[in-house]
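User: Second chain of the day. Same drill as before.
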Amino acid sequence: MAIEKYEYELRSLSEEIKALVSASGKKIVKAINNEMVLIYWQIGKLIVQTEQNARADEQSTRNLIIDLSKELSSHLGRGYSRSNLMYMRLFYIGYPAGVTASHQLSWSHYIELLKVEGSLERSFYENQSVAERWSVRELRRQKDSALFQRLSLSKDKDGILKLSQKGQLYEREEDIIKDPYVLEFLNLPEETRFSEKQLENRILAKLQQFLLELGKGFAFVANQYRITLNNTHFYVDMAFYHRILKCFVLFDLKIREARQHDVGQMNMYLNYFKEEENVKDDNPPIGIILTTGKDEVMIEYATGGLSNKVFVSRYQTHLPDKDLLRARVSELMRSSEQ
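Assistant: Same format as last time:
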């Protein structure tokens, strides 16, 4: 065998083996995680059953877990700290019928989910974590940004229940809209004035986080997308394509309150994309004016009667008050029952 051919065969064989080992390693890690989650649920069940049999009060349960942690740690090593045992107990209490997504979520995911108090909210984040393959860090960020509450505020009681049970679905244009969008990851101080160009550049620098905030299905196309009409250039701040809805989504960034002419400008962009950029099977484009504030009545009149889908959403550069949003969602649920 010639040296060149031998070296080629060696490299090829080496790459195949490394790929095989890597794939096998991932399967092993996944299998270990699945087994760990199931065992932790069973441990939680045993703790709860012991409590119930002994009719233990809160202090007795605390002492039981402290002593159990010492005993297990001395024999089994790490993984049985008092904190971890507490979460195993809560795991069983929160999922008494077992966990169906154990093969898709890690124990660290479940620890974050167990920190969510409401069952509807927890169910939503669990479904979204599976559907969008959130890392633990991404799950934590979406919880901190009150994604469930932000999406719930535009729905009635049935819509909130559906959101909890099935996660965020993308069936119509309105499903991709948030109000507000939370852009705390841009690290823009509220007291400091910044230009629209600076806002755009910060978003581009943090594009992965921005895509996470937008939600599933968004693909970045371009920024400052040039449109030329009658020898005059216009620029769309940011253009995306939504692979689920099969349409372009255009963003116009504003560092002020939205105005009537902003709607007209976006409508022009959408008409251009519909005629010049859409290809067969593309749906009509969507326009989102991202602004610091909006007059609801003015926006209603400005967008009324348009054939294109133009939305005006606020953005904020700090995390929302989750307690306030939870109260608003609870009020919405109660009003739906009346």
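The longest helix spans residues 3-54.

User: Great, on to the next one.
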